[in-house]
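[Protein data]
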Amino acid sequence: MSTQEPSSSQEASKTLVQRAPEVAGNVLRQILEFAIDGNMTIPGAKDAAARCLQTRGDHEAAVESVVRQHVGLAGAQGFLTNLGGLLLLPVALPANLAGLAVVQMRMIAAIAHLRGYDLNDRRVRSALTLAMLGEDDVRKLVASGKLPSTPMGVATAPVFDPILEHAVSERVFGDLGMKMAGKHAVVQVAKRIPLVGGGVGAAADGYFTYALGQYARREFVRRRG
């Protein structure tokens, strides 16, 4: 009896490890699809891009507007989900990460759409997910040979690479998990203070979103005629 328990535990652990790429892919796929398509109350990336284009009348001005709007959205949700301090942290932190991922993914997708990329193309969707890592992490992974190319290279590759898609999903999912575990320790400690935590959360989420927006603008160069 006792000799079988470790075996069962090992089998369960092995199953979890084997399913990790599947879990990561499913979670990020749902975030990506929601960010692009939206729903009845929250417009997706294409609609957000179209509204900015209609208001600004120029694609590059619309890109600037998209970034500015999503930085504001990231800051707002960062403030609200971190306002409660330590007592609400177990609930608020996952909500903050999910909300921030949707906001950032929608911003990156809207930028790519305005620059002429097909958001239904699986290569482009892999590139959008990869861009979520940010410039520094992508540069390091490409330099170390763990990734073959940048978001721009993935979006314009000759063929879709499902193996690369799984690798990107795992990496981005792991990055979100590291943030949840306290990767940005100083920020997380400050978030534990009621009211003050909300302000820190808003500033941090707004800053990271702005940085991703600038990275996406550099990566997804204009393809429209």
Residues 14 and 84 are 38 Å apart (CA to CA).
